[in-house]
Write a structure and sequence with these properties.
Layout: H1 21-30, H2 33-41, H3 51-58, E1 62-68, E2 74-80, E3 87-90, E4 93-99, H4 106-113, E5 116-123, E6 128-139, H5 143-149, E7 158-171, H6 183-212
Antiparallel strand pairs: 1-2, 1-5, 3-4, 4-7, 5-6, 6-7
């Protein structure tokens, strides 16, 4: 079964990938269409990988990848790796090394019949999120590409590469994002606290020792 997609060249604005006619009707009914129309006319969403997006990707160690099968059944998959493992390949493409997992291959199966994909980027610590719309494809047996995408220090077994072609992206508001921190982010703080505790314990021990010597 084939999936019909709309070419980026046929969209008036990059945001049309998300703001379909049905969405715009709802925006009109709910009173937000005027503001979004102004956004579209003033430049709208970026359609390439900008330095701003590249900097955002460089520190992230996880994201969510959305795909759908030919019938439109959606699927969301968590992806994790070392910081910056979702790498910029060129101004239109990001990619990552695909690690071995539970071998269900739902994402691979979906992409084999429907290239439409979505990446949801969350920076919980700084309460920021970015959404990427585009297409994705699986690349097998390309050692050069895998060498570019893999991180030798990360223990996951690399099986293939997945490349994502960016057609539009948008920065979401910070509203309702609960702040969370990864183990990597809190480790330095814990280390400082442990050192401070050790210093205080040493100081207390020294004071007790001095007191015991007073007659």
């Amino acid at each position: 079964m084939s999936v019909t997609t709309t070419s980026p060249s046929r969209r008036e604005y990059p945001s049309d990938i998300a703001f379909t006619p049905a969405v715009k009707i709802i925006q009109e009914q709910k009173g937000s269409r005027k503001n979004y129309a102004r956004m579209e006319r003033s430049g709208g969403w970026p359609a390439t990988v900008t330095p701003e997006l590249a900097r955002f990707l460089a520190d992230l160690d996880m994201f969510y990848l959305g795909t759908a099968n030919a019938d439109g059944q959606p699927y969301i998959q968590y992806r994790g790796g070392s910081p910056g493992f979702l790498k910029v390949v060129d101004e239109h493409t990001v990619g990552f090394a695909d690690f071995g997992g539970n071998r269900q291959y739902i994402t691979l199966g979906n992409l084999s019949e429907n290239p439409r994909a979505f990446i949801f980027l969350m920076d919980y610590a700084n309460q920021q999120r970015i959404k990427l719309w585009g297409t994705a494809r699986v690349v097998e047996n390309d050692s050069g590409l895998l060498d570019k995408l893999r991180d030798p220090a990360y223990p996951g077994k690399v099986e293939r590469a997945i490349l994502f072609t960016v057609e539009a992206w948008d920065v979401n508001c910070q509203q309702h994002i609960h702040q969370r921190f990864s183990q990597r982010q809190i480790a330095p703080v814990i280390e400082q606290l442990q050192q401070r505790i050790a210093d205080l314990e040493s100081e207390v021990k020294s004071l007790k020792s001095g007191t015991s010597n007073v007659h």
